[in-house]
TrEMBL record:
Residues 103-254 form the Fungal lipase-type domain. InterPro entries: AB_hydrolase_fold, Fungal_lipase-type, Sec_MonoDiacylglyc_Lipase. This is Fungal lipase-type domain-containing protein. PANTHER family: ALPHA/BETA-HYDROLASES SUPERFAMILY PROTEIN, FUNGAL LIPASE-LIKE DOMAIN-CONTAINING PROTEIN. One of its GO terms (biological process) is lipid metabolic process.
Length: 316
């Protein structure tokens, strides 16, 4: 953790432009959150399609729980930490100087971990300044009809109050904080939604009123599609880094009304990144079997290793 903090301190987090070095910090923090494994997750381990993290798989195989994130505040490091555990998500906060990085991951309490459930999903609509839920529809996209993936949305937004309380408790002042959201896989989708709502709190969105200060940026890795085109056009989006062979970013399908993030970068095997346009090349019939062979390309460790190759800074 000390080495990750060294990398974090080297960055200027006030700048909102894309940075591979910031992506490396966020990828490492997105990896660390998989070290927290609670008893209820082990009991539901059979539900997991084990594609998210090599380290997480080792914890599940061992049958042992871990609350290592809670112990970080007892370690002499130049930062403060907190953990918010919900039924469906875990948020790990790292605070240093005037920066707060919120690393999000999903838990295995619900069926969101069953990736086949994401092929046939529900939408959570925003309309008239309030939220309304409508059944799934195969219709043309209307930019006036903004919607998020319902399961991802309800997994992170209810955590805002707890996150805010922890930030206020751990900081002397919240007036100048720069808040960064990050996450991998399901956690990436939740972080993207958290960032979208948080960065809109002074505009037309009121759900994040209790969240302190401003969300300056978000970095996500191998995340599924989390919203429709209306949200992409109306809300701030994350810097999403994906790998070509990773199938998770191709679900839910575009034909179901879900859209790619507007700021995406393909991560190459040499560690380089470039804006690209991707397609649902696998096809709906091939998505399920492809999920079973996507472990190597989707694991957070794989993302972190390639990004480290690109920055020239070894993984901590």
């Amino acid at each position: 953790m000390g080495k990750i903090l060294n990398l974090a301190y080297e960055q200027d987090w006030s700048k909102k432009s894309f940075s591979l070095h910031k992506a490396q910090v966020c990828a490492e923090l997105s990896s660390i959150v998989y070290q927290d494994v609670q008893e209820y997750e082990l009991k539901k381990a059979s539900r997991i399609h084990l594609v998210a993290s090599d380290l997480y798989r080792s914890f599940v195989r061992s049958g042992k729980t871990s609350s290592i994130l809670d112990a970080l505040n007892g370690v002499k490091l130049d930062a403060r930490f907190f953990v918010v555990r919900g039924r469906y998500s875990l948020v790990f906060g790292t605070i240093f100087n005037d920066v707060v990085i919120l690393a999000v991951r999903g838990t295995v309490f619900r069926k969101l971990w069953d990736w086949k459930a994401n092929i046939d999903t529900e939408k959570f609509y925003l309309r008239g300044g309030r939220f309304e839920f409508f059944p799934f529809e195969f219709t043309a996209t209307d930019l006036g009809r903004q919607y998020f993936h319902k399961g991802f949305f309800e997994s992170i937004v209810p955590q805002f109050e707890s996150i805010s309380e922890q930030i206020k408790e751990k900081t002397n002042s919240v007036s100048n904080l720069k808040i960064v959201w990050t996450g991998h896989s399901l956690g990436g989708a939740m972080a993207a939604i958290g960032y979208a709502i948080h960065s809109s709190r002074n505009g037309h969105m009121l759900l994040a009123d209790e969240m302190p200060n401003d969300a300056v940026c978000a970095y996500t890795f191998g995340m599924p599609r989390y919203c429709g085109l209306g949200v992409i056009c109306g809300f701030s989006g994350p810097y999403h880094i994906y790998r070509h062979a990773d199938v998770i970013p191709t679900v839910p399908l575009r034909r179901m009304g879900f859209s790619d993030s507007n700021r995406e970068y393909e991560l190459t095997e040499s560690g380089g990144v470039a804006p690209t346009e991707r397609t649902d090349a696998f096809g709906i019939a091939n998505h399920i079997p492809k999920l079973l062979t996507s472990i190597k390309s989707h694991s957070i460790e794989g993302y972190a290793e390639l990004i480290a190759k690109g920055t020239g800074k070894a993984r901590p």
